[in-house]
Amino acid sequence: MNLKNARVAMVVVDLQNDFLAPDGAYARGNTLSAEALKLPERMLPVAQAVKKTGGLVAASLFTLWPDAQGEPMISAHLKERRPFLRKGDFAPGSRGQANVDLLAPWVDVSVFKVAYSAFFNTQLDWVLKKSGIDTLVVCGIVTNGGVASTVRDAHVRDYHVIVLSDGCAAFSEAAHQAALADMGSVAEVMDSASFLKQLG
Asked: What strands lie across the sheet with 188-190, from one edge to the other?
């Protein structure tokens, strides 16, 4: 596909303060990913280029909705893996839930999500279709989690999908590379420089 004729949207998966900021939930739990911390600065030129060519920038925001007592509703598997999560983390409308500061000004649409995929129980597909989007360039965290799930859901919805290999991160390089190789069956995998060159 010639990207010059494509209707492109960038989908930023979960680059949020509670995951990445020094005062966020994951920093408090000593679970910051060194590679993930590099992504906002690396993806800023991509977001700017997509906007400059008339494209859309959409972001998914992982969200822990509060129950009637204000406690976060956390799935059992996540609570087991991230026992440090507590009231207020990833809460709707909070600073922790928000897009990281560097990318926030470039995001047109944010959708709240409760599971891995940015499409699951969100309005992302509706927004993209309403905007006439046919091509998605996906980045974010983690490569073998939210990114991979979002890419596969995009594929079954007939989007042309590009995954930015240097725009994603996982908690190990092996998991990152394995996920990229796996996504190659349903998406194009390239680095951001190659994408920007194609975008023109």
From this structure: 109-113, 56-62, 8-13, 135-141, 160-169, 188-190
